């Protein structure tokens, strides 16, 4: 029972679906929800177009936040999470990987130029909304699973938006640790957010900071000295 829907907001689709599922649970219209994302390559045209436009990494490796970042890597995949109120999960003795305390969504509007140049203000607004609803200060956060596509334009914009929000009230001695699962599996596009959410939940459950594959030299286009961020 309850709502059932398909969400298509490009690369953020599965996280938008998770946001909608959480809203349904918080409003009490559902007691349990499945949120997920799927990405499959059924025809070659998409990959051909992206390759010809120079948007894909030449070596087949996603090098998020690295000086060698030259494009993303397409990935297929499917993932889903089962969500329910914490009290219900505790009562039923469920295995709990993580608790979602708040979520936020936004769009770039005219702030974003095109697919490879996301909007800095839109990203910052989504984060501020999520932390406000979770009753958390951004400066209290230790780890963040980033979008981190490994593109020369997108990575610096995302790092700047993180600095705008996550630096508020942060002790300079405790920078925000970030990583992106795209270094491990590539960019699963419509399922990429779910891959990142599952990774973050596992990091919380296992109490580890995941390392970043293919990260060697920090991207010089990112102002690392003045951003409270560390890969």
Quick overview:
With 231 residues, this protein is α/β, with parallel strands linked by helices. 33% of the residues lie in helices and 10% in strands.
Explain what this protein looks like in three dimensions:
The protein has 231 residues and is of the alpha/beta class. 33% of the residues lie in helices and 10% in strands. The protein has 7 helices and 5 strands. A 3-stranded parallel beta sheet has the order 3-4-5. Helix 5 links the parallel strand 3 and strand 4. Helix 1 crosses helix 7 and helix 4 runs parallel beside helix 5. The longest helix has 15 residues. It is globular and about 50 Å long.
Q: How far apart are the termini?
A: 42 Å
- SSE pattern, N- to C-terminal: HEHEHHEHEHHE
Q: What would the principal axes of the Cα set say about the shape?
A: globular
- Average pLDDT level: 94
Helix content: 25-40%
Q: Are there runs of 5+ residues with pLDDT below 50, and where?
A: none
Radius of gyration: 18 Å
Strand arrangement, largest sheet?
Answer: 3-4-5
Give me the count of strands.
Answer: 5
Largest beta-sheet characterization: 3 strands, parallel
Class of secondary structure makeup: alpha/beta
**Percent in strands:** 5-15%
Descriptors for this entry?
two-stranded antiparallel ribbon, alpha/beta, 3-stranded parallel sheet, 7 helices, 231 residues
Helices, strands, pairings?
Layout: H1 13-27, E1 33-39, H2 45-52, E2 77-83, H3 86-92, H4 120-134, E3 143-145, H5 154-166, E4 176-179, H6 182-185, H7 192-206, E5 229-230
Parallel strand pairs: 3-4, 4-5
Antiparallel strand pairs: 1-2
